[in-house]
């Protein structure tokens, strides 16, 4: 089985391979594909669509049995700004299996900058004076004091995807 992961981001690749290898055997290929949404999704709908598009585009690009897409975004609510993340798995049926992940509130000063047009990764780099937070602990790692990092967050999401897939194909 060939499993195409729609990203070159190491945290997302590790998350998918860690979660899936416990339940399926296959060759994992990471491929840089478009999400066909904005670089910084600003709603659940856009973030979910980005994950679905990445899964479909990865599967098609690699002629894989399964395509997996993971996408992070930000949602503005009456309470404040929340990180959101969505994942999708697409197989031969082309009907996506979709799951949403953890959410935490982030400071308004971060959310305001993102909703003004900056990408969360760039804002986080500046906020914590580090480079490439998005490919390491992520905003979730910063705002959970390192208790949950981006790989863990996306691993849980990936487990939800493979679990649904296995249930559907039992």
TrEMBL record:
InterPro entries: ITPase-like_fam, Non_canon_purine_NTPase, NTPase/PRRC1, YjjX_NTPase. Residues 6-156 form the Non-canonical purine NTP phosphatase/PRRC1 domain. It comes from the Bacteria. GO terms for biological process: nucleotide metabolic process. Its cofactor is Mn(2+); Mg(2+). It is an enzyme of class 3 (hydrolase). Binds 1 divalent metal cation per subunit; can use either Mg(2+) or Mn(2+). Gene3D superfamilies: 3.90.950.10. GO terms for molecular function: ITPase activity; metal ion binding; nucleotide binding. Its EC number is 3.6.1.73. The keyword DNA-binding does not apply. HAMAP family: Non_canon_purine_NTPase_YjjX. This is Probable inosine/xanthosine triphosphatase.
């Amino acid at each position: 089985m060939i499993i195409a992961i729609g990203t070159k981001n190491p945290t997302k690749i590790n998350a998918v391979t860690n979660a899936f290898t416990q339940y399926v055997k296959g060759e994992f290929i990471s491929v840089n594909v478009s999400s066909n949404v904005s670089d910084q999704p600003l709603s659940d709908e856009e973030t979910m669509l980005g994950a679905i598009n990445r899964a479909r585009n990865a599967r098609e690009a690699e002629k894989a049995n399964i395509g997996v897409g993971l996408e992070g975004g930000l949602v503005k609510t009456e309470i404040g700004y929340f990180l959101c993340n969505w994942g999708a798995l697409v197989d031969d049926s082309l009907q996506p299996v979709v799951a949403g992940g953890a959410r935490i509130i982030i400071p308004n000063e971060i959310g305001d900058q993102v909703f003004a047009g900056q990408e969360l990764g760039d804002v986080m780099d500046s906020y914590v004076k580090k480079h490439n937070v998005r490919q390491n602990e992520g905003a979730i790692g910063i705002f959970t004091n390192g208790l949950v990092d981006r790989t863990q967050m996306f691993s849980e999401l990936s487990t939800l995807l493979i679990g649904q897939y296995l249930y559907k194909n039992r």
